[in-house]
Amino acid sequence: MSPLLTVENLRVRSGDRLLASLDSLQVDRGECAAIVGESGSGKTTTLNAMLGLTDGLTVSGRIAVGGVDVVGADERALGRIRGSKVALISQSPQDSLNPTMRLGTLLRRVLARHGVRGAEARERTGEALGSVLLDPALLRRYPHQVSGGQAQRFAIATAVALRADVILADEPTSALDVTVQAAVLGLLTRLREDHGIALVFVSHDLAVVSGIADQVVVMRDGRVVESGPAAGVLSRPSAAYTRELLDAVPAIGEGPC
Ligand SMILES: Nc1ncnc2c1ncn2[C@@H]1O[C@H](COP(=O)(O)OP(=O)(O)OP(=O)(O)O)[C@@H](O)[C@H]1O
Predict the structure, then answer these.
(1) For an engineered disulfide with 62, which of 8, 136, 175, 212 has Cβ 3.0 to 4.6 Å away?
(2) Cα 183 to ligand 1 centroid, rounded to whole Å
(3) Mean pLDDT of the chain
(4) pLDDT at residue 123 above 80?
(5) Has residue 251 got a pLDDT over 80?
(6) Is the pTM of this model over 0.80?
(7) Would you kindly state where each structural domain of the chain is located, as residue ranges?
(8) Nearest ligand 1 atom to alpha carbon 56
(9) pLDDT tens digit sequence for 79-95
(10) Any atom of ligand 1 within 6 Å of the Cβ of 45
């Protein structure tokens, strides 16, 4: 079976400046690839390229999501890919939700945009909320009336309701407190196991990455400095930069207090 996500020879440039490059990445059903690196290394640009969100930039190479090519696709094709094939979960989902609409209306509209209406929409909504353990009563609330953790669960439920094959998660837990963070990470892991979702997880937090990723891509200044199976990259890094990132992770129990 072909991987759910394939990237080959990706280059994203702004004029002459290389913002992100990735020679090869394959993420299979149920797998998680993490992209790590310091601020400005090109992580978000890489994710955006996977969604075709590269206005004003020059993109070359190949990205295929669920067998559909993203690079070079027109807006109509991208509209079909986004949501139904690939969904984005951002750092602050509340900011990307229309504040004037209840969550239920937002979800209904997203599903309708992908042709899912009526009984089918209700059934998928119920299933999706169940899979992220969200009380359906929350659908009557507006975005500002839910917590960060609930908003993140809602974003994940939207991806599940759309039956996205690939979830792109851009620092999905960095705005959450530690217990909510653990719950959201556990949820993403369960979705991979139960629904076979492929996950691309962007983070600068190697402690979080070590608990969730099968593969790790380490980026710096728009280039990959090291990549491979998570266990190898995180326990026996070959690049000095990866070692620096790992050295910056406090050991468990080694806190300021
Ligand atoms: N549309 C754009 N046009 C020009 N430059 C851009 C554009 N988008 C991003 N950049 C630049 O590309 C570089 C990589 O940015 P990117 O957001 O991908 O980094 P990042 O690793 O995700 O950082 P962070 O962890 O801070 O989010 C940065 O220098 C940024 O300023």
Answers:
(1) 8
(2) 29
(3) 90
(4) yes
(5) no
(6) yes
(7) 99-163
(8) 1
(9) 888 878 899 988 877 77
(10) yes
CA of 22 to the centre of ligand 1 (A): 15
Whole-number Å distance, alpha carbon 40 to ligand 1 midpoint, is: 5
Q: Are 192 and 169 in contact (CB under 8 A)?
A: no
Average pLDDT of the residues in 178-184: 82
pLDDT tens for 214-236 read: 999 999 999 999 999 999 999 99
Give the tens place of pLDDT for each residue, 40-70: 999 999 999 999 999 999 999 999 998 889 9
> Does ligand 1 lie within 6 Å of residue 39's CB atom?
yes
Distance (angstroms) between ligand 1 centre and the Cα of 170 equals 13
Q: Which of 19, 41, 220 to mutate to test the pocket of ligand 1 (most atoms within 8 A of CB)?
A: 19
Q: Whose CA is nearest to atom 11 of ligand 1?
A: 19
* 90 touches ligand 1 (CB under 6 Å): no
